[in-house]
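User: Working on a comparison across species. This one is Ribonuclease P protein component from Psychrobacillus lasiicapitis. Can you predict its structure so I can line it up against the others?
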Amino acid sequence: MNKRQRIKRNAEFQEIFKKGKSFANRQFVVYCLAKEDDYYRVGLSVSKKVGNAVVRNRIKRYIRQTFLEIHDQVYSKMDYIIIARNPAAKLDFHETKKSLEHVLKIAKAIKKKS
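Assistant: Here's the predicted structure for Ribonuclease P protein component from Psychrobacillus lasiicapitis:
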């Protein structure tokens, strides 16, 4: 993910939390908010309750790689915040990708395959 696709500032996170809609499954919570820019942005949040630094960084790498692989299916003009829950620490990459795709489908953030 390049720099313009990241959400880093606290004010941006708070705006998406307040104005966006949330969708969840057991492993992830996704907040979505429409915007005018013609590219999507992603913010990641993994609490210290999930695991140590190694585990948290692995989860973030898996999420970033998932977005790299499905970037053409994800709607642009949206901001996404992904919050990892405790069960996400036990998943490997393929399970993480499947779970993240599942919650994005619930959020209607993935285009239908044609």
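For your comparison, note: Strands lie at 21-24, 28-34, 41-46, 78-84.

User: Helpful, thanks.
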